[in-house]
Amino acid sequence: MEPEQLDLRSYDTAEDKRQELLRLFPEIRTEGGKIDFERLKLALGESVDVGKERYGMNWPGKADCFRAIQSPSLGTLRPCPEESVNFDQTENLIIEGDNLEVLKLLQKSLPGKVKMIYIDPPYNTGNDFIYPDNYSESLQTYLEYTGQVDAEGKKFSTNAETDGRFHSKWLNMMYPRLYLARNLLRDDGLIFVSIDDNEIVNLRSLMDEIFGPDNFLGQITILSNPRGRQSEIIATTHEYLIAYARNEDIGSLQGQSLSDTRLDEYKYETSDGRKYRLRGLRHRGNASRRTDRPKMFFPIFVNPTTREVSLQKSAAFSVEVFPRKSSGEDGRWEWGPETTKERIHLLEAVLIAGREEWDIYQREFLIDEGGQSRSLKWKSVWDEKDINYQNGKGELKDLFGDSPLDYPKPTYLLRKVIEGAADENDLVLDFFAGSGSTAHALLDLNEQDGGHRSFILVQLPESTGRADYPTIADICKERVRRVIKKLSEEDEEASPSRRSRESGNPDLFVTDELDSRVRGNDGVRNQPQDRGFKVLKLAQSNFNPWNAEVPQEAGALEKQLDLHVDHIRDNRTADDLLYELLLKSGYPLTAPVEVLQLAGKQVHSVAGGVFFVCLERELTLELIRAMADKKPERVVCLDEGFAGNDQLKANAVQIFKTKEVTSFKTV
After folding, report:
1. Tally of structural domains, the chain
2. pTM for the whole thing?
């Protein structure tokens, strides 16, 4: 009996959707396990549109987008501890590579795990993005672009405005990335995309198709450049931020935190310590007269001693109050009689000073019964001074001495978005990371509110032409390093004694201001700030795959056999192999890994012993038994570790089976 071979391909999106259809409609399965679309039409009845003319979005190359989505990646992500900060402790990732391939590789390990995505994609201004000419070989193109393999004429290209398919090429670049990104969002996840006038119409249509028009949350106009672009007929001063939910029913925005001035309005307090402010129950503004809503004009009775209110007059509730405007004209209440009866506990009477008249107010609590703090709804126009994109350039200048990029997003914008969309322990993804503004903003916000949000950044190593930072990915990594260093130094200056000795890591700090939020009642720190990131780089799989398409010639077949005998690529480390097996087995790249010594050999124990990875080249029966005795759920070993010993391999299958190991695979 042979163990299964581990599938080294990325997640097969198309196959997953086929299986979901077959699960929902078993009657459409054909004898060969395929889908009978005629039966599917019958099963769905009148909801199938069979007409030739349909409303929808189409463009040259859309079919290629689906081929790109459905083509699995055989790449991997190689860890680079030497370029990382706190590699072994951090849950933050910076991935260098083509984001299409990276998104494919993350499909197994991150489905439904990301709370918020923010991207600032190329705006398609004529020369601002690069893309692989051959979508079917995007990994090969990337490897050639980065010099990891010999080039054969394939390249990344810019999108010139003179190209006959100028908009189509941008759509071809965006569609598969957004499609795959949606799979990574949680059910309550949110995605935000920055864009300008060049592609705003196409982007909205694209996202309507991928996320559904019902999940559109809003389009925000951002005053990004108050002076405007003077070269234009109408000087453009704005850009847009488009917001969609994975599922609008449960994916909602938290809004913007209240300013200090607003917080000061919550100056009243209940006996149990809940802060609140008072808002008049009489309706103000439009339709505020009695004649507008006659049923909302009725008396409310006040107990002048306790200031309690009632809808019934009695000896205690003797004062009658109507909703009258300051002019003396009859007005109307915000609520009708039924709603007022339900919410009577939220009302209180106030004696108006100088007028000796009573009025009715509703209590608005700072923290609701569900524990959520009150916030301001986002407005559709953001024009704050700090959101000016010149501030983004200034932030880079403060960190680097000069700004290595011209138009980085200001962290104020990103902090506002993250604060409104991601709770304190959520995961944020940016797969057009640029200079790393998203990570900068997230780290700052964690410092401010004591949160533990984590980030994943993905950036193509696009050339900058600079000697100090040759690629945009280099700028991104260096920026996050400097932000971490700056925050840590500020913490040390604020409270040198608060170094995180508990973690054994001198680079992790907690400020005095946040100490109460990150320490429990016993004074022991719950969790230090995560000030680090793992760097990983897109590369060919560590394992030479069997190529069934090689020419059926003796020389070619012999070469393929030689590759398969020693199928691990040269110069690949144990960590390289481990991270690929984590990725291809569906475990996050930040999963905790412990090295165990069993039967004189090393075994990597992942996620608290759930998954064992053994990279030993000489497996023994004692080692197999020792691993099985630990009862992991899954085990992966190198095929070459059995050295052609079929009996040992068969014994391993049986031993793991008897110990209820649910999956034993080799690679």
Report:
1. 3
2. 0.80
